Amino acid sequence: MRACPTRIWLKKTGIAPSTALERVRRMREARILLGYHAEIAPEAIGIGLQAMVSVRLARHSRALVDGFHRHLLGLPEVLACYHVAGADDFLAHVGVRDSEHLRQFTLTAFTEREEVAHIETRLIFEFQRNVDLPALPPATG
Question: Distance between CA 108 and CA 104 in Å, rounded?
Fold first, then answer.
C-alpha cells in the first residue's frame, strides 16, 4: 500500500497539518488552487479511443466563438477544450467508445453546426498528464 502523498509532503516540508490546511485555504481563496481531480483509467468508464479534433470556424464574432465554446463544454465526450490562435480556432480532446462512436460524434457535434468550416481529427495513441508544473520566475518588467 502506498503512503498518502499529503503525509509524505508534510513530512518533507516539516510543517504542521494545521499550517498546511491554512495555506491551502488561502491558496483557494486567492484562486491559485482551482480544484482537485481524480485520474481515472479511461477504459474503466468505457473510453476506448481518444482523439484531438481541430475545429476552424467559418466566421468570427464574440457570439459565435462563445456559443461554440459553450457547445463544446456541454458535450460529454469532450474531455478538454482549448480556444487557440492559428489556423484552427479550437482543439477538442475527446474520449469515445470506438472509431464508429468517434465518426458519429464528429458528424453530429461538429459538421452539423453551421459555424464550423473545417474539422480535422487526430487519434491519440497514448496520453499521459505531466503532474509537475514548472515554477517559473515572475516576468521582469
Answer: 6
Give the Cα separation of 73 and 102 in Å (integer). 17
Q: What DSSP element (H or E) covers 26?
A: helix 17-29
**Structural domains in the chain, sorted by start:** 1-36 (no CATH), 42-124 (3.30.70.920)
Q: Cell numbers of 96, please? A: 469515445
Bridge partner residues of 120 (DSSP): 54
pLDDT band at residue 134 under the 50/70/90 scheme: confident
Find the length of the chain. 141
**CA separation for the pair 117, 57 (Å, rounded):** 5
End-to-end CA distance of the chain: 48
Output phi, psi for 52, to 5 deg. -110, 125
Q: Give CA–CA dist 104/124, Å, rounded.
A: 18
Average pLDDT, the chain: 90
Where does the pLDDT of residue 6 fall: very low under 50, low under 70, confident under 90, or very high at 90 and above?
low
Parallel/antiparallel/unpaired status of strands 90-96 and 78-83: antiparallel
- For residue 113 the three cell numbers come to 453546426
